[in-house]
Amino acid sequence: MSRVAANTASRRRGGLADREGLLTWLFLLPSVVYLAALVLVPLALAIALALSGVTAAAPAYRFTGVRRFGSVLSDGAFWRALTGTLVVAGVSTVLVVLCGQVLAHVLLARFRGRWLVRPLVLLPWTTPAALSATSWRWLLDSAHSPAGRLLRAAGVASWHERPAMVLGTIVAVQVWRLTPLAAVVMAAGLTAIPRDVRDAARVDGAGAVRRAVEVVIPLALPSIAVAALLTAILTCADAAVAAVLTGPGGSPWTLAALAYARGIEGGALGRGAAIAVLLLPLPLAGAAVLLRAGRSPAEEAA
Amino acid sequence: MIGGLAARTAARELARQRRRQAVRRVVERAALYALAAVASVLCAAPFLWSLWAAVHEVPAGESVRLLRSTPFGAWVGRTVLVGGPVTAVTVLLALPAAYALRRRRWGGTAGRIIAVLALVPSVLLAVPLSWAADGLGLGGSLGTLVLVEPAVTVPVGVLLFGGFLRAVPVDVEEQALVDGHSRLAAFVRVVVPLLRPAIAAVAVLAFTLAAGDLVYARALAGARSTVAAGIPAHLEHGAAPLWRTLHLGVAAVAVPLAAATDLVLGRIIAASAGTADRT
Amino acid sequence: MRVLETRGLVKVYEGRRKQHVRALDGVDLTTEQGECLALLGPAGAGKTTLLRTIAGLESPTLGEVHLGGHLMNGLPPRARRVGLVVPSHALYPHKSVRGNIEFPLKAEHVPRAMRERKARWAADLLGIPDLLGRRPGRLSADERRRVALARALVREPAVLLLDEPLAGVDPRSRAAARDELRSLQRRLGTAMICVTHDQAEATGLGDRVAVLDAGRLRQVGTPQDLYDEPVDTFVATLIGTPPMNLVPRGDRLIGFRPEHLLPAEEVPPDGRVTMPLRVDRIEHLSGDRHVYGRVTRIGRETRVIARLPATVTTPLAGGETREFAVPGDRVRFFDAEYGNRTAPVRIGG
Q1: Res. A201: pLDDT tops 90
Q2: If one looks up domain B62-278 in CATH, what number appears?
């Protein structure tokens, strides 16, 4: 008992390690400060840069006002890139969700040779996008590769020249690159469906199609939505694939690649920032939907 | 008589259904193997082509010599030099943050807001960051890149650790408190050891993201810094043999990353399943 | 000596849509040195909340917790020096059995040699010295229970808090486990609070039993007290299997235990209460006969159970009606509306 008394006296206040509120903030604050400094501050700077005439050669800040946006909006390259971004994001999202759903089932299934298939299937996701884009470019350009031969057989000498072909190539690489990620997200959604619910449906005599339509898909719908939104946002935001596929000097077909080519490779910081700021609404809208969709009924009840 | 007939009909019907079930099973398995094979070939297509071209069109020794003549080794070294510290910073920042968020009512919302930060287009941030870095005299250095990359990896880490933490039973943690440990000690001595697999998963993912980034690397550390920035820039004016050899290099980078991710994939799926009902 | 005292404990949780849930509603409880107090109540009665509040894992909305005469409010769990065993046992999966048992000692910076000796002592006490090197994942439910107990005991806490201590034990070895737990506690002289929803476990384990319902203490007393003199119908029907029979009569309920309801010729005539019983069904349970039937005359027709010991050989068959009786001093009376004990009333016959 005396030990309790001694402890009690010394610990009445509770040391730092016991103060829950303080500990929470100590744990949280470094990340919050870090992210604020490296995301929110640059975001503000980007808007400031977009209103200026800064270039890499003349880095001093000069305010030029909204004139910059006018010149960006009157540029044909901008409108072409905007259309390209919308087309690529839309088509990629649909294809990624379809392919990803199939791949998710493959990822979760048990079969012989799984140890080999799984890392192969992950390659597109884990390989740096810039590198896989160069690989694809070579695969399509080379006259000796199967894909190159196929293109030539179809009468396409160079896919760089036809807009539809370029956009199709960007879509193909994006779908190839993002399908594994979407598959992982949707596989997680599928594993979250309680096994006994599926078993119950089987015992109840529901066929495979009925099970999929009435049990699996409704329960996996949140993860399908998340995968779709992620794909849409990532294709909008990605500069590497389109920039590498067109190569430097070319006029990129998506907004992010255009901003990258002008702002970073070209050194026209103000112009690049202006294009990037105009790109922001697309991912922002997706993120807003993602945040809203995240509030599940269970959480609202809690 | 009629009973016997009914029984025979029923037996025949059951046999028919059994056959159908067997056929369906075979078809399902065949479809699965076919899908797995097609998916593997499609996913590995550029790399298979690189390997095939490298082996068939150039002697192996020539390929290695050519690869040596490029700064490929230096790029890989710099990629590791960036990826390592970024991974460490990600775990050190994201794990405590995710833990703090789990213990708060508003943690779910705050966690999602943090996670969404990973989706801000990197071009948008890279332009002002490169301007600021140049202004501060920090441009063109790997250190700046190490400082900036966690802006993408920390949000991803917070999201994943959140999912993993849901699997750590609260009563084990509370037991540590009753057993005489402070909240901090319970975190360090019970929660962190239980999260070791999660830490491995987040580390692999953070490294992959950091190694894969082109935009920040190009903007902050220059075109000849990491593998992701170096190879496309180097190839721009290269001839066919150089392309072939460097794509061997691409495969050499891609395969270890995919293999490492495969090791932690099961855990990532499990952790996202924990978050899937919330995200 | 008073080891633990709670005064007017109230715990209010804010539930969904600002609804308040009173998990504890003014609990006054004391435990003496060396005593085993069983906390009995149905699911959701607030038993576990009470235990967690004592351990410091929950802070009470109102009221005080005293341990060893000191006010514990506002102190973290580690300052309270209590031993806790939860139903899941909460073993540290990444530590060996030895590491689990030594973990509370590490918190107090006990020197290594001393730690090993104490862990050994606790393991010997629970008969698990040969498990020390194993991992929790490879233990049976019973072994896990023993490790959790050893870990709770190793600091020699002033009070041991056990939440459903026999939850995982299979029904056959429950009595043995109960016995072992009691003899362990008697040897150590530690005060012990056991939470359980099983009345047989509570009355078998506890020196005293505290019956908790909806956050309030209904009755605290020895198992005998609770059985013979329940303060209300809740306690009367919670304790004993089969539960006490309750026959409505006007604004009262007449209560009597099944073993006191016997064929009339088995009950001494003076002061007995007789009633006709129509037999529906008879169950034979370990020598006793449980007679399910309906009684009339003393009140409204009601289904009752009579437990006839093997010594009563009166032949009985389903469908027949026979005169049964209860000794007058075994009859209890309760208020029909509120369920609390009331003064006896005269029953004709």
Answers
A1: no
A2: 1.10.3720.10
